[in-house]
Write a structure and sequence with these properties.
This protein has helices at residues 40-53, 77-90, 104-107, 124-132, 147-159, 187-194, 203-207, 210-222, 249-269; strands spanning 17-19, 22-24, 29-33, 57-59, 94-97, 113-116, 137-140, 165-169, 199-201, 227-231. The longest helix has 21 residues, at 249-269. 37% of the residues lie in helices and 14% in strands. The chain has 9 helices and 10 strands. Bound molecules: phosphoenolpyruvate and manganese (II) ion.
């Protein structure tokens, strides 16, 4: 392990990360919403559905890191304005990804939490800029990152002055091709041994398959995750990105009911 002066467990036992009215690490937080903001109608429908089902925060990409330059890249500023409207209507805090260090300051005016994605998890200038920014950061694990590399990325943000980092396990690339990635649920208790930062799980990118999200969400909850990030779309089959790994509003509703039951047992044990 490299030196984890600030995010290591020796620094403190646990951290609570405030995001709007939420506190990651103190209560279980479910972030839900579409991979990308595609239109006002799509995002508002998603926002109302996830709010109704009990989600705590709304996600939606305005800048999308796509493998092909010809795939949908996101609506940029227009998407941020739509997210802002959804926040005003639902009260849900907004989580959205930043790809470019130059965008951190102005996107921070719209977002309650800035996401740094898997592909950028070792973009050190982006990490430093987010570390100088005012917003809490959701730091995804890189698809090729060890726990040491991932936590060292968090250390970049903390050492630049921003103590508010939430880690997100989203699967790593292995030889297995049936799933998009291999969701490393052992990362949850391992990170909790190594760091005081909250850790959540994204089974959408972790598996790439909507059919696997519910079981992996329940497993992540049982493993001690501080929350979940679930891609949810009003019409997954029409999604411009990641439809195969997005739940419908009905599927998300079922998942939230099961999570509440499991959390009830978990709290009973604690
Ligand atoms: C996303 O959350 O839509 C995303 C691109 O995630 P990741 O960076 O984990 O692939
Ligand atoms: Mn996605």
């Amino acid at each position: 392990m490299d030196e984890l002066r600030l995010c290591g467990r020796q620094a403190r036992p646990r951290t609570a990360v405030p995001v709007g009215p939420l506190s990651f690490g103190e209560s279980f937080v479910v972030i839900a919403g579409p991979c990308s903001v595609e239109s006002e109608a799509q995002l508002m429908a998603a926002a109302r559905a996830v709010k109704e089902a009990g989600a705590h925060a709304l996600r939606g990409g305005a800048f999308k890191p796509r493998t092909s330059p010809y795939s949908f890249q996101g609506l940029g500023l227009a998407a941020l304005k739509i997210l802002d409207k959804a926040r005003r209507e639902t009260g849900l805090p907004i989580v959205t990804e930043v790809l470019d260090p130059r965008d951190v300051p102005w996107v921070s005016e719209f977002a309650d939490m800035i996401q740094i994605g898997a592909r950028n998890s070792q973009n050190f200038s982006l990490l430093r800029e987010a570390g100088r920014g005012p917003r809490p950061v959701l730091l995804k694990r890189g698809m090729f990152s060890t726990l040491n590399e991932w936590l060292s990325s968090a250390e970049y943000i903390l050492s630049a002055g921003n103590p508010n980092v939430v880690l997100c396990e989203r699967g790593i690339r292995t030889f297995e091709a049936y799933t998009r990635n291999t969701l490393d649920l052992s990362a949850v208790p391992a990170v909790r041994e190594l760091s005081h930062l909250p850790v959540i799980v994204d089974p959408s990118h972790g598996t790439g398959r909507a059919s696997l999200i519910e079981s992996m969400s329940l497993a992540a909850t049982a493993a001690g995750a501080d929350g979940l990030m679930i891609e949810t779309h009003p019409h997954p089959e029409q999604a411009l990105s990641d439809g195969d790994q997005s739940l419908s509003p009905a599927g998300f509703g079922v998942l939230m009911r099961k999570i509440r039951v499991l959390r009830g047992c978990w709290e009973g044990l604690a």
